Amino acid sequence: MVLSTFNGIINIMIIPKEIIRSKRKSIALVVNSDGELIVRAPYYASKDAIIGFIHEKQNWLERKCMAVKAANSKFHPITMTEGDIVKFCGEDYTINLCAIDDIILFGVYIKIPLACSCEQFKMWLKRKALALMKKRTTYYATLMEVVPHEVKVSEARTRWGSCSFRNNINFSWRLVMCPLDVMDYVIVHELCHIKNKSHNRAFWASVAEVLPDYGQQEKWLKNNRKLMEIL
Ligand SMILES: [Zn+2]
Hints:
The chain is of the alpha/beta class.
């Protein structure tokens, strides 16, 4: 936030991170996943018109930016420290370091060998992700009568899933941290791409045929994108 003058009045204003000009006809304010303001404006909109619009929406903007930043604060990098919280299938597990050989889930705890590094923990999550995603993909593929060519998990941080031209399906292993209904949505989404590679109306109708409430899971993924960055 900075002090700015508008109509001679000094105000505290949230400054935009970026102003994207286009052929659009009106100004729109978007708060991105980092809680930063992005302004979309017509080519002809003056600086004063943009500042005026931001002032008008000031209260809404402050609430929105703070809500996004507060939601993000729950995502911090995993450091393999006793008591640290990690997510597995959408549930919170507390790290408990102990003299054991293998990682195990035990009630609300995830018991981890003392010498386990972040990288080894990541490999364990990746193995779990592959087994889980393969099993659930097989279930939905049978239900939807489609056949993916190959199912793999990847290191992707920018997208949760993808389906290639040859129907090779890739899931970000980080999906293993998301709730099961969210995993299922990404699976169904990619399986629908076997018959339809675009995101047109028919595509979304085919997703809704299997998961009528998929909007909820889409929203969850949008609000929890930061999960991609913690490990
Ligand atoms: Zn898609």
